[in-house]
Input
Amino acid sequence: MEDRIKIKTYSTNPLACMQKLSHPTDEWSAFIMRNGRHAFQSRAFWRAYFYGMPDDLPLFVCEARDDAGHLVALLWGGVVVRKAHRFIKERRLVAYRSGIDSVDKVWPEMNAILKDEKCEVEDAVLLKHWHKQAKLSVSEWHAIIKGSISHNGQVELIEKGGIVDLTNSITPKGSIGRAIRQTEKYSSKYFKSALSITRNTGENAWHTLNKHAVHHVEKWKATSTPSGFSVFEFRAILRRWICAIDSNVAVYEVSAGDKSLGVVVIIEDVNEWRFYLSSFEEAKKGSNPNHYHVGYWAHQKIMEMAKDKGVKGYDFMAGDERYKVQFSKGVTPEYCREVHRTSCRPTFYQLSQTVYDLWKAISSRNKK
Output
């Protein structure tokens, strides 16, 4: 069947991509709704993501069609520019990302190539065609994908996380269980009220989340991965995604009486609920015990809600934090892989581009 598949790669921009998703009956929209199995492969997320990109940003799209002309695979991405050597810039395609750091802070963790279940074309074939037709000044292709891939390249990065099987008992045990019980006791003593959790959607969800964004910024500001709430693009994309009519994102607010303690953002897919981010007010020094973890309590309560609704799994998504492993009882599947061809010799185009950039820099300096 693979020899009957026609693959086409072309350049476009975010505005044109948004237009392809303007109505649920559009080809891209219908394909995503039929084959997307993750929130990051949804019409609501893609529309919000394209909305946050500059209108004229170069994007490269790879479409595969069967002999009847029906779309069977869809891959798109932008370009990341980074220094490969001191004077040589390297341009890499990135799958399902814009290539702009401020936009990509939303960090879509599902980057499996979106294909129809009957599509037999290997990921490697699509990726190589995508790179070759884009004609970038780079001797390798770069994509983050889910699972293994048949190719002669090299895996640079593997991210893992944790999934909780909600079809089994989810009664918290060990250190997690003790922390949750101590949290409940301390809340009654310190706040004079039991903890409660409220589900919010739409504009109300966004306003609830935005209220606690400052805590997220404070927590991550001194790390190598600062909070996305510190940039406009992240906020714009997140708000549009949460408030979309077909969005499945909910914000759970944890309170003790009248005091709001923080939020947990959950992507509610049909069979699995996925933890996207959380933001809690830092405990005041000397006021809370070491095992006071409102976040643990919130995750446990949300898992119980999901289980009651018949949801089969609770996905903590990528990240090697200890609590994710403890909650998931060591179930740590692979989430993202970064794959590239082993050759990294600079091409003639790279060298000429570098010389041109250097000449422009010298010319602009001389004008001053």
Notes: The radius of gyration is 23 Å. The CA atoms of residues 180 and 297 lie 5 Å apart. The chain has eleven helices and 13 strands. Residues 137-156, 341-346 have pLDDT under 50 and may be disordered.
